Amino acid sequence: MATNAKRQTVEMYIEEKRVQGEEPVCAYVYDLEKLRDHANTIKESLPDFCKLYYAVKANPDQHLLEVLAPTVDGFEVASEGEIHKVNEVGQIPMIFGAPAKKDCEIEAAIRDGVGYLNVESFQDLNRMLYLAEQKQVKIPILIRVNLSSDVPDSHHMMSGVPSQFGVDEADIPDLIEKALQSDHVKIEGFHFHAMSNNLNAKAHVRFVETCIEKSRKWQEQFKLEISVVDIGGGIGINYWNPGEPFDWATFAEGIDHLGKIVGNLTLVLEIGRYMTAECGFYVTEVLDVKKNHDQYFSLVRGGSHHLRLPAAWKMSQPFRIHPVEEWRYPFERPGVLNAEVTIAGELCTPNDVLVRQNSVKQLRAGDIIIFEMAGAYAWTISHHDFLSHPQPEMVYLNK
Ligand SMILES: *Cc1c(COP(=O)(O)O)cnc(C)c1O
Description:
Layout: H1 10-20, E1 26-31, H2 32-45, E2 50-55, H3 62-68, E3 74-77, H4 80-89, E4 94-96, H5 103-111, E5 116-119, H6 122-135, E6 139-146, E7 156-157, E8 167-168, H7 172-180, E9 185-191, E10 195-196, H8 201-221, E11 228-232, H9 248-257, E12 266-271, H10 273-276, E13 280-292, E14 295-300, H11 309-312, E15 319-322, E16 335-344, E17 353-364, E18 368-371, E19 393-397
Parallel strand pairs: 1-19, 2-3, 2-12, 3-4, 4-5, 5-6, 6-8, 6-9, 9-11, 11-12, 14-16
Antiparallel strand pairs: 1-13, 7-10, 13-14, 13-18, 15-18, 16-17
Helix pairs in contact: 2-3, 5-6, 8-9
Bound molecules: pyridoxal-5'-phosphate (PLP).
Cofactor: pyridoxal 5'-phosphate
Protein name: Siderophore biosynthesis PLP-dependent protein
Keywords: Pyridoxal phosphate
């Protein structure tokens, strides 16, 4: 895209693109300035006893990592591939956590100087002790806890319920004792990542309070020299009602109050979705509009193989319509006025749905749909190869 002094917008990209070509518009567009501003706002709102990490799996795009690197305190990684992606961006502190680790990943984490490794089970601990002894190193670990009681109002629960993540809270004392018997690991703290897409700020503060209390209890009970309480991520995006977002100000204020119980510990936040969701847009052209069984359907270039999240969660992706007045064909242009429409993709499956029966004022073939909040768990969680359609263009605004 041509660079000019003005701040670039998604609409500017669409207009430039439309005059260029025959192919239907289909792109992921990232507004890097929006990301930079958002990351700075988050960072500045947190008290000094907090460290802000970005959870790379939400979106590992190198352009995004480069924007975030100067602002965040580190990156949370969950595979050897993510370690490499971070290394390509620079020397940045890392926390490595994964529920099923391979020897090569633990070795990569040791070799690349990852700051802390999560321990998710007794097997995980044994494997680290074994590898650390071979390499004559001491691995700094965070023990990932699966709490005994759940965290209300969250979408994907990973703690307080039976799940594959972490060490059962009841087994934590045994695991601590085992770790304390060896010179090859050093317990640096506890890790509590427990949920995904929590929209309730007050509930999240209560969760953090629980994390601090538990950590301090074990710190005292076992006379641990720990410094970290890692609360993971899980801050939500309100895809259903974007006008009522997670109340970050209330959350930050609540965290600030917890300064009185945090003692000498540092609170680590590993924010994924909330960091990058809003800087990403999936932009695509309407190919057809039709009526079947008294319902309207709009079909677009692309679909769930580019943006799987709404299909996975059976929800409607928030969107806005970019109207296009020109119509390049000699035949009638299909469209709807003031109707409820389902927006589907180009795949041959009824699951390829991005929006379910939302009302629109007007939607016509040739218009362009800008799907919003598509910067996290979007492109990378999608099944790109299904049906062998071309991939979307990747566009970065305001580099
Ligand atoms: C996925 C994940 C995160 C980020 O979660 P979000 O819900 O995207 O904020 C943080 N920590 C761990 C361990 C994770 O697995």
